[in-house]
Amino acid sequence: MKTDPLSTVYDDESLRIRYLPGRFETLVVSFSGVGEHRYQEPDIEFFRTASGDGDNHVLFVTDESRCWLNKTDMIERILVTIRQTVKATGAKRVVALGNSMGGTMALIVARYFAFDAVIAIAPQYSVDPDVVPDDPRWSFFRRQIQKFRFSAVDRFRADRTKYFLLHSGTRTERRQALRFPEIPGVAQYMIPDAGHDVASELKQKEALDPLIRYAIGGKPRKFRRAMQRVGGQIRPAYVEQMIQAPKLPVVWTGQLPA
Description:
Layout: E1 7-11, E2 15-20, E3 26-31, H1 47-51, E4 57-63, H2 74-89, E5 93-99, H3 101-109, E6 117-121, H4 139-143, E7 162-168, H5 171-177, E8 186-191, H6 198-204, H7 208-216, H8 220-229, E9 233-234, H9 235-244
Parallel strand pairs: 3-4, 3-5, 5-6, 6-7, 7-8
Antiparallel strand pairs: 1-2, 2-4, 8-9
Helix pairs in contact: 7-8
């Protein structure tokens, strides 16, 4: 009979945290995204990649309410669980990982916990309508948030944590990406030809696992080279290219618009 390697270490109506044991002294905290179905718990993401094929201890954090950490005391419950797991495992290196909502959660939790690295794929700068009125996505869940405790990801601790942010070049994603503050030590990459599901696209190119492995291992140079191989550009270079891109001429058709 096959046994489930995961054990649930925290569970309530809005938050579920499961633990996967590892062999060595790295703990990865993997935050799930919104998921595919409104009334189903989001799937665990990065199961094999986060564990490093069994090398790393992993906490899989699922925000079942999809509140982007805005529910009362949610972040405190996560922080307590992380600290307890660090103590229990003797982890010497702790890394946060997340995709979309999970990436945003990883970045916010890093304000309060000294991660060695954070990998955030397609994170939102904000889902607060007052901050991002030009992003209509996930409106069902966003309407359930009564008060935005974390209106935006506008604080980084680059003095203690290495940040790796990956964004696609679609219009909506770009609007989110360019709202993040530019801070030395925060490596923000743009992949112009990718969509919001950039993680799946990188996986199809067999690039996702190496990128996450380099970030978990604290190897920014290898991470940068791997990003360049899949067309990723560091944010200043991407913005400069956008500025220099030739503008299409306006062609007069002889008719006024209706």
